[in-house]
Amino acid sequence: MSSSERKPLIAGGAGASINSDRDGPVYSSQSLHQQQQPKQRHPHHLGSPSASAYLSTKSLVRISLPEPDKAIDDHTRRWFGRDGLGSFGAIQVAMIALYAAFTDYDKTSDLPVYGFEKDVSIMIFVGFGFLMTFLKKFGYGAVGFTFLVSAFCIEWAILVTRFFSQASNNSFGTILLNESDLTNGQFGAAAVMISFGALLGKVSSDQMFWLAFLEIIFYGLNIFVGSLKLKALDVGGTIFIHTFGAYFGLAASWVLSPDPKKRSYVDNSNSYHSDIFSFIGTTFLWILWPSFNAALAAPGQQQIITINTVLSLVGSCVCSFYASRLLRGEGRFEVVDIQNATLAGGVAIGAVSNLCVSPAGALAVGSVAGVVSCAGYIWTQPWLQKKISLYDTCGVHNLHGMPGLIGCAASVIATAAQANFAGPAGQAYPQSTQYAYQLAAIGITLAIAISSGIFSAHVIQRLIPSERVLFTDELYWTVPTSEVTFSKGDINPNVRRAVSSRQKRALTIARWNLVRASIGNKGNMLGIVKHAAAAKRLSSLRQNSNE
């Protein structure tokens, strides 16, 4: 269908125009970017069926409805599309079957790690979830999809990581679960949430669900090669969680992000209140990051990990405030810098947090990471978006990618200098050739992350339909009608269906009441009163539905 054949939507500020030959009512928003049109006279009668009855209006907006997505095979829609939930139900049944067949309790384990496991849970479900609520119209999706996808990733990552662990020992059997497996599952979920940040608002729940399914497999493969085979050091997940998750997500975003020339990015924006909620996520992550780095460390290492992580976070916090004001040259702090760059120290120090890098070294790593992260938001992210069309919603390259590479470099330098690091009982032992394994693990991680991200995104793109409307909750959640707002270029049948039937009915009745009052006899007081009441009712309904 050509653009000239698309049905127009005509909407206004205080009133609206209704075409009598229209199949049904359509709904608009006062939040639309309004274009001034010539004023229309109010006809005193409808005339022919094709005539239009115009209501009083200050301005009119004409918007073309986008074409529906390309037809997709019914079987694919039923299992992967928004029209059915078969995929969710089927995968959970499969999980129950796998756990029934291959898992049992490890009755010999007595690991006192639930305190750390609880902190990591808060980081994932509250920290990452609320950090992504900066989008003013995607708050439900940020927290809700984090809840859904992370829960699924935990149960799936436990099986995948234990499978690769058994494969490294060539000893397959029943998986005996203990609390460290729960933490490993949460680490897998953390990697996926980092990737989700690059895709936030641009993928459907179905797409993210199945992308997470594939990512966990490659995440486990990367740990198998880098950690279990090469024995690379990464107690805090700088290499295997942050770097992997960031570049997997960036690669997937490069494939899945729609062209802004074809899809509207107008709702990819923040608000004062959404940024406050995002700060909640920042605060939780900053406080609990030492637990993330120390969760699976030996008891003799946890103290030095905690000290190094806190010092690195302090350094990144102070320097991100300084860099935000200095580098932007505006004399003010930019909220996106403070929400994210303050956490860069926790990312960068992870791989060396159990090494004796000295307190000054930990502060230096965090400080450099904070400045580099700020610079990424100011210069690197816009440059990548312009040069290679890489659209990174949350800026995961700035928070996890580049600070992760700083941490990777720090791990190579520390091991190349034959630094001592604490053993299980607090004793130190030298590593003379460890730097080579660190370099190999870093290179393999980048290769697996980028290639698997591109591959997985292409698979998802072919199987699951993309949405026509971006960065809004209205397609996936029941939202209060007072929050239903449409942006220019975003009106389509899917969005119109998101408006409640009660609102549709009320708006339709109010419109036609005003039509009848407009074409009736306005010479008497009763007609004037009816017209004023109908106009007030319609204006109230429109404001409630669009503010």
From TrEMBL:
Comp. bias regions, Low complexity: 28-38
InterPro entries xrefs: Ammonium/urea_transptr (IPR029020), NH4_transpt_AmtB-like_dom (IPR024041), RhesusRHD (IPR002229)
Pfam families for the chain: Ammonium_transp (PF00909)
Entry's Gene Ontology molecular function annotations: ammonium channel activity
Transmembrane helix in keyword set: yes
Gene3D superfamilies according to UniProt: Ammonium transporter AmtB like domains
Membrane topology category: Multi-pass membrane protein
Residues annotated as domain Ammonium transporter AmtB-like: 120-463
Compartments reported by the entry: Membrane
Chief site of localization: membrane
Gene Ontology terms: cellular component: plasma membrane
Region spans: Disordered: 1-48
Gene Ontology biological process terms from the UniProt entry: ammonium homeostasis
SUPFAM superfamilies linked to this entry: Ammonium transporter
UniProt keyword Transmembrane helix, yes or no: yes
Transmembrane residue ranges: 85-102, 114-135, 142-164, 208-227, 239-256, 276-298, 304-323, 361-380, 401-423, 435-460
Alphabetically ordered keywords of this record: Membrane, Transmembrane, Transmembrane helix
Annotated PANTHER family: AMMONIUM TRANSPORTER, RH50, ISOFORM D
Similarity comment: Belongs to the ammonium transporter (TC 2.A.49) family. Rh subfamily.
Full protein name: Rh-associated glycoprotein
Native organism: Capsaspora owczarzaki (strain ATCC 30864)
Source species taxonomy: Eukaryota, Filasterea, Capsaspora
